[in-house]
TrEMBL record:
Keywords: Membrane, Signal. Residues 1-158 form the Type II/III secretion system secretin-like domain. It holds the Pfam family Secretin. The lineage of its organism: unclassified sequences, metagenomes, ecological metagenomes. It is found in: Membrane. This is Type II/III secretion system secretin-like domain-containing protein. Its main location: membrane. GO terms for biological process: protein secretion. One of its GO terms (cellular component) is membrane. InterPro entries: Bact_Secretion_Sys_Channel, NolW-like_sf, T2SS/T3SS_dom. It comes from marine sediment metagenome.
């Protein structure tokens, strides 16, 4: 992705997802016990913030802050008789300060993590047999070391490159800004730029810079793909530690006016239907 900013102003790229959870607190007021249930979010994904300063005719000084956050799992706490499940996150940060020439790329590494996955191995045909099939199935845990590399290449825009371009912020009600940015990156002109969740813009939005003719094409595409019909999603949430009825009441406040939640009592799960952003 490409982002544009002014010398001395922070620019950022946010490829993130909000993980919802519920915070339960109990307090006593005038002898009455009150239980408060508050929807909260933890952000996971990748954030890249850059503070550039032009320090010469062709030199750029940059303060770069990459942050990678991952969801490791959940930990359950008990508040009186209520079980509360809170997310456990892993965050890695690699702040960097460097001065480079315009157009010269730099690579940032050191964002190391260990990824554990469960792998199931099955023997063809025999593993599908009832009862004895388990004897021909094995499960083991695979651990991988992941090193994330980030490449940043600053480019000082000349007046002739800026002339004729317009900018517009598009905020989405149902679509995910990250998915939209990926789709319109195929139709943006070589001089155009996209910024995901720009500073001082509404949540879940993109800022697009391009010439006027191409901007009309981009706006037409966004109008079509941003509708509820195009972005409708359905997801099943299995509940292990809570009942579906109270959980449904909490989640309803997070949905759009067109969203819905169905309860499947047989599997103790919720079927949520709404736009991609809400789901």
């Amino acid at each position: 992705p490409q982002i544009t900013t002014i010398s001395g102003e922070v620019a950022g790229m946010y490829a993130v997802q909000d993980i919802p959870y519920v915070k339960i607190t109990k307090r006593e007021e005038e002898g009455e016990k009150i239980t408060e249930v508050e929807p909260k979010y933890s952000t996971v994904g990748m954030i890249l913030q850059v503070l550039p300063r032009i320090v010469g005719e062709d030199l750029v000084q940059m303060s770069i802050l990459p942050i990678v956050a991952e969801l490791l799992g959940y930990e359950t706490f008990k508040v009186d008789t209520i079980l509360q499940k809170l997310p456990i996150l892993s965050r890695r940060v690699a702040p960097t300060n460097i001065t480079v020439r315009s157009g010269e790329p730099i690579v940032i590494g050191g964002l190391l993590s260990k990824k554990k996955t469960k792998v199931e191995s099955r023997f063809p045909i025999l593993s599908a047999l009832p009862v004895v099939g388990r004897l021909f199935t094995s499960t083991y845990e695979k651990e991988e070391n992941v090193n994330i590399l980030i490449t940043v290449k600053p480019h000082i825009l000349k007046p002739r490159e800026i002339r004729g371009r317009t900018k517009k912020i598009f905020a989405f009600r149902y679509a995910l800004a990250e998915e939209v940015a990926s789709q319109i990156s195929e139709i943006i002109s070589p001089q155009g730029m996209i910024e995901i969740n720009p500073k001082e813009a509404p949540p879940n939005s993109v800022l697009v810079r391009d010439n006027e003719d191409q901007m009309k094409v981009i706006q037409d595409v966004l109008t079509k793909i941003g509708t509820y019909e195009q972005q409708r999603r359905e997801k099943i949430f299995l509940l292990r530690y809570s009942s579906p009825e109270p959980t449904k009441k909490i989640l309803l406040s997070l949905l759009s006016s067109r969203g819905s939640i169905k309860i499947d009592k047989k599997t103790n799960s919720l079927v949520v239907e709404d736009g991609a952003y809400q789901v």
